[in-house]
Amino acid sequence: MALPKVVAFGGGHGLSATLMALKRLTDRLTAVVTVADDGGSSGRLRQELGCLPPGDLRMALAALTGDDSDGRLWADVLQSRFLGTGTLAGHAIGNLLIAGLWQRDPDPVVGLDQVARLLNARGRVLPMSSIPLVISADVVGIDAENPNEVCRLEGQARIAKTEGDVLTVRLEPENPPACPEAVESIMEADYLVFGPGSWFTSVVPHLLVPDLVAAILASPAKRICLLNLLPAEETSGFTPSRHMEVLAEHCPRLTLDTVVADPRFAQQDPHLERMVESMRGQLMVTEVGMRDGSARHDPFLLAATLAVVMGL
To answer: How does DSSP classify residue 263?
Structure first.
């Protein structure tokens, strides 16, 4: 039986968890990564060089390295940061490597593929758009004197840390160009996987790029959604069903085949199954979190769950 072709959407630690699970099932794997980060090392490189923010792309590449000693070494090198107080302080080594390769070739995919070959990565990493993007959000609850006033926040870093309630997000420019290779991978996929991760700044943005959305809706692939283990930061206080509503609000035509939820989160919400069914999906409640109780997915449990969903 041929291994499935899988495309995973997201960014940051959430996407890394998904990739670490999926690489145990297939090497026909593509990560499509957000490119709106404007904080930390990525934000500095983006501002200074005008390049795509490399941080989330770097994390995805590190997640796809092998589990042998060489793979673990390269993942650690890629993620390591410069110390001190100079101009390099805080920069991830992998960010500088990727940004340096991008200066050699204007096509960002070329540089990412070169790093993937260097790491012997079990899959491919692609940006969701060929240009750096800006996320803006409508948020309520920021002004204590006017709690119902809708305020606009701009920038991934600000939105991710807001203490207000995010209502909706948008991208600037409004109709950004999708990475052609990402569109192609979606159309050829057997499975599309959304989440987990920062819902408004890592998961939803993929549903705001017109050509990506068109490919997602037209692809014959089955669609899987992996819910977070707990609500946090930009979705603090959100129920699991509210997470699903956010997807439906930003992409009304999106349907899902399977939604995976950990019982510690799913059992708090009696409306979740009905919400999943409204998106034509089936709810699968199973333990996928780390045994230490932290809000992290266990890559082995998640891999076992995805193997069942995919019939492997």
So the answer is: H
- The residues facing 98 across adjacent strands are none
Distance of alpha carbon 134 from alpha carbon 66, whole angstroms: 33
Q: In the prediction, which pLDDT does 139 show?
A: 93
Nearest Cα neighbor of 199 from 234, 161, 241 is 234
CB 57 within 8 A of CB 98: yes
Identify which of 167, 286, 168, 306 has the alpha carbon closest to the alpha carbon of residue 229. 286
Q: How confident is the model over 169-198, as pLDDT tens digits?
A: 999 999 999 999 999 999 999 999 999 999
CB atoms within 10 A of CB 100: 12
What is the residue-averaged pLDDT of the chain? 93
What does the pLDDT look like over 210-240, one tens digit per residue? Answer: 999 999 999 999 999 999 998 878 898 899 9
Within the chain, residue ranges assigned H as helices are 12-22, 40-49, 55-63, 69-79, 93-104, 108-119, 156-160, 180-188, 210-218, 240-250, 263-266, 272-278, 299-309
> Which residues are within 8 A (CB) of 206 and not within 5 positions of it... i.e. 6 or more apart?
9, 10, 32, 34, 128, 194, 212, 216
pLDDT > 90? residue 145: no
Q: Which pairs count as long-range contacts for 173-176, CB under 8 Å and 24+ apart, including other chains?
A: 173/131, 173/133, 175/210, 176/129, 176/131, 176/133, 176/209
Of 264, 245, 146, 262, give the one whose Cα is nearest residue 200: 245
Mean pLDDT of 165-169: 93
At 217, list the tokens. 């809706």
Find out whether 233 and 160 touch, Cβ atoms under 8 Å.
yes
Judged against a pLDDT cut of 90, whether residue 67 lies above it is answered with no
Q: Cα 128 to the chain's mean position, in Å?
A: 10
The position carrying tokens 């549903």 is 207
Query: 126 falls in which pLDDT band (50, 70, 90)?
Result: very high
Residue type, 65: T
